[in-house]
Amino acid sequence: MTPTESKFDQLPLWAWIGIALILLVQSTWLYVDSRRRGARHPWFWGIWGIIQAPVPTIVYLFAVRKIHRK
Predict the structure, then answer these.
(1) How many Cα atoms are found within 13 Å in the side-chain-facing hemisphere of 45?
(2) Which chain regions cross the lipid bilayer (predicted)?
(3) pLDDT of amino acid 1
């Protein structure tokens, strides 16, 4: 067994569930908000949001919501 294989066993189940919930909530919010704001591809934001966090949310805030212009 390599050292990297044993590191996944050290993460408790509640942490895996928390990670899954964070990704699911982020994905749902990105999809619903982009659809409500009329973004061109809301499904893209939803899929990207379920893959990783928090980069999709940060990019979404600057690309679709344009928070930097206020």
Answers:
(1) 26
(2) 12-31, 43-64
(3) 55
C-alpha 16/C-alpha 30 separation (Å) is 21
CA dist 20 and 38 (Å) reads 27
DSSP 37: T
More confident residue, 4 or 13: 13
Q: Are the CB atoms for 47 and 27 separated by under 8 Å?
A: yes
Residue type, 44: F
CB-based contacts of 60, cutoff 8 Å, min separation 6? 30, 33, 34, 45, 49
Which tops the pLDDT comparison, 48 or 1? 48
Is residue 48 within 8 Å of 30, Cβ to Cβ?
A: yes
